Amino acid sequence: MPLLRFLPILLIAILALSTAQAAEKLVTVSGEATVAVPPDTAVIRIGVSSLEKTAHEAGEANAKQMTAVLAAIKASGIAERDIQTSRVSLQPQYDPNKGGTARLTGFQANNQVTIRIRDIDNRSAKKALPRNLGRCRLYARARFRLRPANRRCGQPSASVMS
Is pLDDT larger for residue 147 or for residue 157? Predict the structure, then answer.
């Protein structure tokens, strides 16, 4: 019987020792990494803006300019599937004079396309930008990224604005 009194104390001691041994076998690891890869795709938005006296003149001028831009883009080797219209607008323009009633001064037409350049190198993005388009207000914005197929498992998306 005296042995039975010590049995619970003995069990608690055995459990305490086994927990201490398990904690000694525990390994904790934490880390951080940075991956830098060159982009393989460029997404460029190119647009033209035309300001004329009438809505018809602004639309006509803008269509003519955008036709020249699209011809230059296609001539650079960009595939039709990689060219997409992203914005078209026609807005009245008023005299900025704050006093009195606003006076209509003309119309502004805007047209913007988004192009995707796959497997970029230093020259391909520059070749896609049209040049020598005469009296054309051209604007562009580029983003460089890594295509999902070229990302490794667990690697975050790389996107850089320029």
Answer: 147
Q: How many domains does the chain have?
A: 1
90 to each of 43, 93, 104, how far by Cα in Å?
25, 10, 14
Q: What is the pLDDT of residues 17-50, one digit of tens each?
A: 665 555 566 677 788 878 777 777 888 888 889 9
Distance CA 156, CA 32 (A): 13
The residues near 147 (Cβ < 8 Å, ≥ 6 apart) are 40, 41, 118
Host domain of residue 88: 41-153
Q: For the segment 151-162, what is each residue's pLDDT rounded down to a tens digit?
A: 654 445 544 444
How would you class 54 by CB atoms within 10 Å of its CB: exposed for 0-12, middle for 13-18, buried for 19 or more?
Answer: exposed
**pTM to 2 decimal places:** 0.60
DSSP labels, 47-113: EEEEEESSHHHHHHHHHHHHHHHHHHHHHTT--GGGEEEEEEEEEEEE----SSS--EEEEEEEEEE
Q: What is the CATH number of the domain that holds 136?
A: 3.30.70.2970
Look up residue 61 and give its amino acid.
A
